[in-house]
Amino acid sequence: MTPTLLNTRPEGQTQALSQALAAAGLGSVDCPVIAIEALRLPDRAVETLARADKLVFVSRNAVQQLAQAWQTLTGRPLNPAQDMKPGAQCFAIGEATQQALLAQGWPTADLAHDDFVSEALLARTDWQDLHGQTVLLIKGEGGRRALIDGLSAAGADVEPWPVYRRMLPDYTRQQWQSAWQAWAESDCPVVLISSWQGFEHLQGLVDRFGHRNDQAWLFQQPAMVFSERIAQGLSEQGWQGPCRVVRPQSQAGIIQALKQWTTE
What we know:
The protein is an alpha/beta fold. It has 12 helices and 10 strands.
């Protein structure tokens, strides 16, 4: 059977993944569970960036939203030679984030795929003593404190920059039920859960617009997730379907993981 992915990527990111899946002969139903709302940079953003030693980006959205926010604040694109401290580097959480940094032309650390997680960054031997260094954490509003706590424990002066807010997309009942039905009636439905907040939003949308048994049925379906932490969380919530962690966290990784269901 050919699997069909419930493509829950944030608004503005679903189309690229669906096109890549179609090119690989795989089906998908676009169903974003997160909408991105831009936030302003801090008042002293220009001065802070100029003294930062490291910039850590937690997502592709963080890269894109910083680029847009900087343009809004200064009236021009971010120019590393002009705006950043000499020798400063950008670090990515996730391969898609790495690609977004490279596309911007910002000085980006060359990391192996296995290093595209928070824990791997914090475990780097050259990150064990960060006293005297300023680290900007470019992120969405809220989220985990693991990076902030880990960087602070290593002695860094950490400044979180929330540059976007994750919102629930504005669905009508008809829009939701049309997408859900197309996915649920496919031969092999598989759901993509790329963040814990995305899972919470998915549950909320099913509760709001779904039929009585939709939530229980959802928990029996195969899931592809972006981290062991999400997989563990789903298990604790009572998820009964098979769960596969996507590695690397990219379109290629999603396609590779999805294709494995065609051979099992």
